[in-house]
Structures are given as C-alpha cells and as structure tokens.
TrEMBL record:
Official protein name in the record: Uma2 family endonuclease
SUPFAM superfamilies the UniProt entry points to: Restriction endonuclease-like (SSF52980)
UniProt cross-references to InterPro entries, sorted A to Z: Nuclease_put_TT1808 (IPR012296), Restrct_endonuc-II-like (IPR011335), Uma2 (IPR008538)
GO molecular function, one term: endonuclease activity
Signal sequence residues: none
Putative restriction endonuclease domain span: 10-170
UniProt KW keywords: Endonuclease, Hydrolase, Nuclease
Length: 183
C-alpha cells in the first residue's frame, strides 16, 4: 500500500458518519451513501432468515478486509461458517467469508455490478449474491479468479424474483417470492 493509501485508510477509520448514512472505503475512495430503504432491508432480512444459523453467521453492517486492496466495504450481508472467524475487531477478513450479499439501489448500480464484483473476486470470496430490486432479479457470482481490478467471477447465474436462487456454497435455495421491486 502507498503512503496515500495509508492516509486515506486512517482518515476513513476516523471518519464520523452522520446518522442515517454509511461510508465505505472502495479501492482508495471514501464513498458515503444514504441508509437503505424499506425494500432493501426486507430483502436482506429475508435472505438472512433462510440461511441456517446453526452452521452460518449471517451479519449485517459488518466491514470486511480484502487482502491487497485499499478497501473496507460493508456488504449488506456477510456469511461465514461458524468457527471461520471469531474476532475481535471491526474487520472480518475476506478469506473467512463464504458469501457476501449486496442489494442494488438507484445510486449503487455501478459500484455493485462492477467495482464490488471485482473487489470481492480479488478477495477470493467464493460467492457474491447481487439482488437487484430495480431489475427484479438475483445474480449469483461464483468461482473468483484474477488479481486486483482485473479480478472477476467465472460463473454467473441469474434468476428472476419469484424463482428460487440456488446457493450451493451454503447448501440452500433462497426463495425470492417476497422480494419487492423499486419500480
């Protein structure tokens, strides 16, 4: 990491975020956004409720550390097997994670589809589930490959809201019937 990166990380870690907002560090840039809306929160909760708690930690508002990246994203939901990481600390290391979930908003489309997809692949997170209430679909990315900004997932599976979304890395099939759109 460069000196500039270290200063940005230090600034980010001391940043006081106004109530109702959240901030993420994405490839050296501090991104601030308004808090999520009702549709977003209901979708995240519906996903978390379908992942067995006896085997998996399902955490919201959890920052993650991605090795080799000047990034500390806060996915909408992080999932890791019990025992893979026991803390302490603010950051869960990406290698401990099995799945990250992002729910697209009108202002996060590019970040979620492009920037975070590449970051999570660079962190070797086995699965990235992108839920898009603007398009009414779920996209599951698996098999991360590559390094840095060139990293990507080799496999992409898309289902429409209302159809089950198999998430093999967790051994579940998510029901999406109750997912609402933002249109």
């Amino acid at each position: 990491m460069t000196v500039v990166d270290d200063r940005v990380i230090e600034l980010f870690e001391r940043l006081e975020v106004p109530e109702g907002y959240k901030a993420e560090l994405l490839r050296g840039e501090i991104v601030m956004m308004a808090g999520p809306d009702w549709v977003h929160n209901v979708i995240v909760q519906a996903v978390a409720d379908q992942i067995p708690a006896d085997r998996w930690h399902r955490l919201q508002t959890q920052d993650i550390a991605i090795p080799g990246e000047a990034s500390e994203p806060e996915p909408d939901l992080v999932v890791h097997e019990r025992g893979a990481f026991e803390g302490p600390g603010r950051l869960v290391p990406a290698p401990a994670l099995t799945l990250v979930v992002e729910v697209v908003s009108r202002t996060s489309v590019d970040r979620d589809y492009r920037v975070k997809r590449s970051m999570y692949a660079a962190g070797r997170i086995p699965a990235y589930l992108l839920i898009d209430p603007l398009a009414g679909r779920c996209v599951l990315f698996t098999e991360p490959a590559g390094e840095g900004e060139a990293a990507d997932y080799r496999v992409e599976r898309t289902t429409k809201f209302g159809e089950p979304m198999p998430v093999d890395v967790l051994g579940v099939s998510l029901e999406t019937v109750e997912f609402r759109t933002l249109t």
